[in-house]
TrEMBL record:
The gene is Sec14l1. Transmembrane segments: none annotated. PANTHER family: SEC14 RELATED PROTEIN (PTHR23324), SEC14-LIKE PROTEIN 1 (PTHR23324:SF51). The lineage of its organism: Eukaryota, Metazoa, Chordata, Craniata, Vertebrata. It comes from Ceuthmochares aereus. The keyword Phosphoprotein applies. This is SEC14-like protein 1. It is found in: Cytoplasm; Golgi apparatus. Its main location: cytoplasm. Keywords: Cytoplasm, Golgi apparatus, Immunity, Innate immunity, Phosphoprotein, Signal transduction inhibitor. May play a role in innate immunity by inhibiting the antiviral RIG-I signaling pathway. In this pathway, functions as a negative regulator of RIGI, the cytoplasmic sensor of viral nucleic acids. Prevents the interaction of RIGI with MAVS/IPS1, an important step in signal propagation. May also regulate the SLC18A3 and SLC5A7 cholinergic transporters.
Length: 694
């Protein structure tokens, strides 16, 4: 289909003609390389063409087809004005590593304008316009020629196979083997081979499969069993986002089901899904959400007076959560526990919901990624509109919406009283549009009629308090005794304790104001380890050593930046009069870390003294060859709204004899997303140098 655009293509008006310069074909016909000289009529102002003295621009294009590897590589560069303007373009068609029925297309280009009669800026704009136009039309053109081939009756081209030499029976058998994948090897075997290849490439050992899917397969059976109906585009988005996570969040990859929730929440817009997923992963790590079911025990007040609990499943197999909101004393719970304990309890409910979805997926043999919530409002009155209670509810909704998207399959609101519209008006703006569509609201006893509860829940499990026959073990709620109330000071202190109960610290990094952490080493050969996430902006990570202690750390007020949040401190230790090489030395090469990356590493100290870990703002380098900014630099700079970066970090010093070469030996390493990912914590060999995995 690609070859049909030559010698000229009516769908590309500026492509006037082309001539073959050279051509090569290998004896086995696996390799076909053809070089052409292409004549282009660039859409440029007449004046510019007159000044340049040309009407047409010539490019050299080299196409390399490798039928053995099933790749097509296309290289192009300008012949005209090559001493003034350098344009290089590279495209490639390859077979998708996870699904050989898909074709991957990649395209990149570079532009370097040295001089052009004073019209450098104009030429750059023209080049960008033409390149953007070509990208948009590329898919349209290839699909046009594919359709043309189908109309000509060509719908299948046999896969290339090496020539068969019938010297002996064994050699004949061996020669035929490459042909078999296209005709006789079962699909599952082909997928298994691809899977093994991927495992070796990503983890280095077939015994350490990467996270994502049970066997890291994305075949039709796996999709149907665990993910549900996906279009090829949706499946491709999932694979691409998972691959990006594997490159930047080593050992902490959520399962496909969870990645898919974020993609669905953003209509499969990869950039938007990646942004909210990264924020959620950082949030989970910072607040140790993965361990909430194992390490946090709800206070007795919650167990006695929080009128909610899990109750069987609905007709679709979704776990069913019952909440008797009308019977719950929200004011009493907030006064006795504070917002943080309520929030943590709701998070534990959501974590339990994720676990139950996985269990039901196995039980029912089909993907179940969300649960149903039944809310009984019998007893709801103005007492529930107490302002601090509503504030706590809005905050809980905000946190859940951000970190558990697409987990609510259906919300059944029963026996809604007259006061309900007031509450709904307050909370509905904080609920995502897609989530709101899943709400079904019944007033009075309407839920007992047609289209009511029986359409969604089997009669046998309708709770007794709703007229059913099933005993529901959800607590009945009731008023919280005032003797359990706590003072505002007690609640405030408790809230701070709960919210900051994390082994990670947050810091802000500004242009000209790095954040620095001091570590004193007494015994040489101790190991400094670190684990940090770049939450915003790009930073440079450095490690320095000094024989003398710096001055006591000073908080940098930076009034223009107004650092006021407790989680965004900025500390500078290296005095401005200190000189690198005299007062302190660099012990590791600087590491540039991009926004969204998770970095772990270690350094085996050679000398006692004072070590300084530094996170510094990363400025975009200027282009060396020209005063014009590179396109990549401009695009990257647009993504940074201010000269501020944020990092979340954890450091620890351990004896060399206790070091195991990776963060697996640290308490912080257990921040791998246990509820959302398989056990994929990677390890590496210990060296007397920094080891950084991204």
């Amino acid at each position: 289909a690609y070859e049909k655009r030559f010698p000229t293509c009516p769908l590309i008006p500026m492509f006037v003609a082309s001539d073959t310069v050279s051509e090569y074909k290998s004896e086995d016909k696996a390799i076909h390389v053809i070089e052409r000289r292409c004549k282009l009529d660039i859409d440029a102002p007449r004046l510019l063409k007159k000044i340049a003295g040309v009407d047409y621009v010539y490019f050299i294009q080299k196409n390399s087809l490798n039928r053995r590897e099933r790749t097509l590589h296309i290289e192009a560069y300008n012949e005209t004005f090559s001493n003034r303007v350098i344009i290089n373009e590279h495209c490639s068609y390859t077979v998708h590593p996870d699904n050989e029925d898909w074709t991957c297309f990649e395209q990149s280009a570079s532009l370097d304008i040295k001089s052009f009669f004073g019209f450098e800026s104009t030429v750059e704009k023209i080049a960008m316009k033409q390149y953007t136009s070509n990208i948009k039309k590329g898919k349209e053109i290839i699909e046009y020629y594919l359709k043309q081939l189908e109309e000509e009756g060509i719908t299948f081209i046999p896969r290339w196979a090496p020539p068969i030499e019938c010297k002996s029976e064994s050699s004949t058998s061996h020669a035929r083997r490459p042909v078999s994948p296209a005709v006789s090897i079962p699909d599952s075997a082909t997928k298994e081979a691809l899977n093994n290849k991927e495992i070796l490439n990503t983890s280095g050992s077939p015994s350490e499969p990467t996270a994502g899917t049970p066997d890291d397969k994305l075949d039709a059976d796996y999709i149907k069993r665990y993910l549900g109906d996906l279009t090829p585009m949706q499946e491709s988005c999932l694979i691409r986002l998972r691959q990006w996570l594997q490159e930047t969040h080593k050992g902490k990859i959520p399962k496909d089901e969870h990645i898919l929730r974020f993609l669905r929440a953003r209509d499969f817009n990869i950039d938007k899904a990646r942004e909210i997923l990264c924020q959620s992963l950082t949030w989970r790590k910072q607040h140790q959400v993965d361990y909430i079911l194992d390490t946090w025990n709800p206070p007795q007040v919650l167990q006695d007076y929080y009128a909610g609990g899990w109750h069987h499943h609905d007709k679709d197999g979704r776990p069913l959560y019952v909440l008797r909101l009308g019977q719950m004393d929200t004011k009493g719970l907030v006064r006795a526990l504070g917002e943080e304990a309520l929030l943590r309890y709701v998070l534990s409910i959501n974590e339990e919901g994720l676990r139950r979805c996985e269990e039901n997926t196995k039980v029912f043999g089909r993907p179940i990624s969300s649960w149903t919530c039944l809310v009984d409002l019998e007893g709801l009155n103005m007492r529930h509109l107490w302002r601090p209670g509503v504030k706590a509810l809005l905050r809980i909704i905000e946190v859940v919406e951000a970190n558990y998207p697409e987990t609510l399959g259906r919300l059944l609101i029963l026996r809604a009283p007259r006061v309900f519209p007031v509450l709904w008006t307050l909370v509905s703006p904080f609920i995502d549009d897609n989530t709101r569509k899943k709400f079904l609201i019944y007033a009075g006893n309407d839920y007992q009629g047609p289209g009511g509860l029986l359409d969604y829940i089997d009669k046998e499990i309708i709770p007794d308090f709703l007229g059913g026959e099933c005993m529901c073990e959800v607590p009945e709620g009731g008023l919280v005794p005032k003797s359990l109330y706590r003072t505002a000071e007690e609640l405030e202190n408790e809230d701070i304790k709960l919210w900051t109960e994390t082994i990670y610290q947050s810091a802000s990094v500004f242009k000209g104001a790095p954040h620095e952490v001091l570590i004193q080493i007494v015994d040489a050969s101790s190991v400094i380890t670190w684990d940090f996430d770049v939450c915003k902006g790009d930073i440079v990570f450095n490690i320095f050593h000094s024989k003398r202690a710096p001055q006591p750390p000073k908080k940098d007020s930076l009034g223009a930046h107004s650092i006021t949040s407790p989680g965004g401190n900025n500390v500078q230790l290296i005095d401005k009069v200190w000189q690198l090489g005299r007062d302190y030395s660099m012990v590791e090469s600087p590491l540039i870390c991009k926004e969204g990356e998770s970095v772990q590493g270690s350094h085996v100290t050679r000398w006692p003294g004072f070590y300084i870990l530094q996170w510094k703002f990363h400025s975009m380098p200027a282009c060396a060859a020209t005063n014009l900014p590179r396109v990549d630099d401009v695009l990257a700079s647009l993504q940074v709204s201010s000269h501020k970066c944020k990092v979340m970090y954890y450091t620890e010093v351990i004896g060399s004899e206790d070091f195991r070469g990776s963060m697996t030996s640290l308490e912080s390493s257990h921040s791998g997303f246990s509820q959302l990912s398989a056990a994929t914590t990677s390890s590496s060999q210990s060296h007397s140098s920094s080891m950084i995995s991204r």
